[in-house]
Amino acid sequence: MRACIEADYLDRYGHSSDYLAYVDGNFEGQYPRVKKHSFSDKVFIATNNHGRIFGPVIYKGKYWFVAAFSREKVHIKPVGHYYVSFNQARDNFAWKLDRGTYYRVRKFVNLDNVIVDSAAESSGDHDGIAVYLEAIQ
């Protein structure tokens, strides 16, 4: 939570909530834990990057989290939020953590889960890459 604040991603109202992530055989709830909240770099009435963090799971003596972030744009007519990018939000959050907190980008991991050439399914612009960050002491 502290690192998110230091990276200018605050716990803000105006986003969907109650998501789960399947991590190491278990469903993990999201942070922030408040309904209709997520970590966001701007208020929900502005174009923003926002996301949720899940975990932690202890594995090989370390605490592991997973996260999902997206960029959305607000439209007035009709009123609503519209998806813009997964990649932009992922990269913005990861590099803000790297520059402004005790987390460092260590590597990029190919998840082999990108969906291309499908009319029925889409992963948006997500390129199937996860950013691996590590807390430094």
Secondary structure layout plus pairing:
Blueprint: H1 2-6, E1 10-13, E2 20-23, E3 26-31, E4 37-40, E5 48-59, E6 62-75, E7 80-85, H2 87-100, E8 103-110, E9 129-135
Antiparallel strand pairs: 1-4, 2-3, 3-5, 4-5, 5-6, 6-7, 8-9
What do you see in this structure?
It is a single chain. This protein has helices at 2-6, 87-100, and strands spanning 10-13, 20-23, 26-31, 37-40, 48-59, 62-75, 80-85, 103-110, 129-135. The model has no long low-confidence stretch (mean pLDDT 92). The strands form 2 sheets. Strands 1, 2, 3, 4, 5, 6 and 7 form a 7-stranded antiparallel beta sheet that branches. The chain has one domain (2-103). It is mainly β. The protein is 14% helix and 47% strand.
How many beta-strand runs? Answer: 9
Rg (C-alpha, Å): 15 Å
The chain-level structural class is mainly beta
Stretches with pLDDT under 50, minimum 5 residues: none
Mean pLDDT: 92
Number of domains: 1
From the N-terminal CA to the C-terminal CA, the straight-line distance is: 17 Å
The profile of the biggest β sheet is:
7 strands, antiparallel
Helix content: 10-25%
The gross shape turns out to be globular
Tally of contiguous helical segments: 2
What is the beta-strand fraction? over 45%
